[in-house]
From TrEMBL:
<keyword id="KW-1003">Cell membrane</keyword>
<comment type="similarity">
    <text>Belongs to the MscS (TC 1.A.23) family.</text>
</comment>
<feature type="domain" description="Mechanosensitive ion channel MscS C-terminal">
    <location>
        <begin position="212"/>
        <end position="291"/>
    </location>
</feature>
<protein>
    <submittedName>
        <fullName>Mechanosensitive ion channel protein MscS</fullName>
    </submittedName>
</protein>
<keyword id="KW-0472">Membrane</keyword>
<dbReference type="InterPro" id="IPR049278">
    <property type="entry name" value="MS_channel_C"/>
</dbReference>
<dbReference type="InterPro" id="IPR010920">
    <property type="entry name" value="LSM_dom_sf"/>
</dbReference>
<dbReference type="InterPro" id="IPR006685">
    <property type="entry name" value="MscS_channel_2nd"/>
</dbReference>
<dbReference type="Pfam" id="PF21082">
    <property type="entry name" value="MS_channel_3rd"/>
</dbReference>
<feature type="transmembrane region" description="Helical">
    <location>
        <begin position="118"/>
        <end position="138"/>
    </location>
</feature>
<keyword id="KW-1133">Transmembrane helix</keyword>
<dbReference type="InterPro" id="IPR011066">
    <property type="entry name" value="MscS_channel_C_sf"/>
</dbReference>
<dbReference type="InterPro" id="IPR011014">
    <property type="entry name" value="MscS_channel_TM-2"/>
</dbReference>
<keyword id="KW-0812">Transmembrane</keyword>
<feature type="transmembrane region" description="Helical">
    <location>
        <begin position="90"/>
        <end position="112"/>
    </location>
</feature>
<dbReference type="InterPro" id="IPR023408">
    <property type="entry name" value="MscS_beta-dom_sf"/>
</dbReference>
<feature type="domain" description="Mechanosensitive ion channel MscS">
    <location>
        <begin position="137"/>
        <end position="198"/>
    </location>
</feature>
């Protein structure tokens, strides 16, 4: 039956078709492989993008907010879900792009007539070369994976990476992009990151070291600082940002010109700077009402304990 169907197709010279395929089959196969690789990557990218979009949309819907920035007013876990999902989506896009590229390269080599044994030998050679000459790239790759999957940082986090600090704009498989407060975009190799200070996870502390004249009533000033911070924490605008009762930690240092008192307020990580600025303004007004004249900063060096020296949770 198969022979009859071939004879029933008039005008087709199968010998010419075979010759044409012998001449052009390999280039056509390579082109089809490349097109297929690009199509596969496009499909993967669309699927990952759709999943990330659905996760972010679902979180925003549950938080009843219109944009991602407003999630800072919702529970921290929801913010972390958004940041981590976007970071993982970026990393997965890069990983799958490399996987598809390697697979397409193997198919192209197969179309060119390279036998499987040679492909295995080539893979071994490339592996040895990678082990010797691409150790940095492999270290970047592995460290980037661990940072994302361990949730050390995510897009939108404020981080300190040692040489660079600022807001994370992109987490790639090899490089993390951080924009600092001056607007400079830093490209930090993942393998060079030995520590990550994440200022967007959990909570933060506002430490206000206030210098007052040596002859001032320390107890009255300390009580005024606490009253100012407590009233602020009870206002509706700041209730969601300040997560614990303000405290005073007493005298941090004493000099001939001034006594330094420390006021401490525990806040959400994303609200620390806003709380600190408003608190300084209110403390200044509170001390003015108390009639306290602040000493000159040219004479006083405020040297309290380091942020972590107290060791308080």
């Amino acid at each position: 039956m198969r022979g009859l169907s071939l004879q029933a197709a008039p005008g087709i010279d199968w010998a010419d078709v075979a010759d044409w395929w012998a001449a052009w089959g390999t280039p056509i196969s390579i082109v089809l492989i490349v097109i297929g690789a690009f199509l596969a990557y496009w499909i993967v990218k669309v699927v990952i993008g759709r999943v990330v979009h659905e996760v972010v949309t679902g979180v925003k819907r549950r938080a009843d907010v219109a944009d991602t920035e407003a999630l800072s007013h919702s529970p921290l876990a929801q913010v972390r879900i958004v940041q981590r999902t976007r970071a993982m989506g970026s990393v997965l896009n890069t990983i799958l792009a490399w996987v598809i590229a390697v697979f397409a390269a193997i198919l192209v080599l197969g179309a060119l007539g390279v036998n499987p044994g040679s492909l295995v030998a080539l893979a071994g050679f490339l592996g040895a070369a990678a082990g010797v000459g691409a150790q940095g790239v492999i270290r970047d790759f592995l460290n980037g994976l661990f940072m994302v999957f361990e949730d050390q940082l995510g897009i939108g986090d404020v981080v300190d990476l040692g040489e660079a600090s600022g807001v994370v704009e992109s987490v790639g498989i090899r490089v993390t992009q951080v924009r600092d407060v001056n607007g400079t975009l830093w490209y930090v190799r993942n393998g060079e990151i030995v520590r990550v200070g994440n200022k967007s996870q959990g909570w933060a502390r506002v430490l206000l070291d206030q210098a007052v004249p040596y002859d001032a009533d320390v107890d009255a000033v300390e009580q005024r600082l606490l009253d100012v911070a407590t009233r602020m924490s009870e206002e509706a605008e700041w209730t969601s940002r300040i997560i614990d009762k303000p405290e005073t930690w007493g005298i941090e240092s004493v000099s001939a010109e001034a006594v330094v008192l420390r006021l401490v307020v525990k806040t959400r990580a994303s609200a620390k700077d806003d709380v600190a600025r408003e608190l300084r303004r209110r403390v200044k007004a509170g001390l003015d009402d108390l009639g306290v004249t602040l000493p000159s900063l040219q004479k006083v060096v405020v040297q309290g304990l380091d942020d972590t020296a107290k060791g308080r949770a």
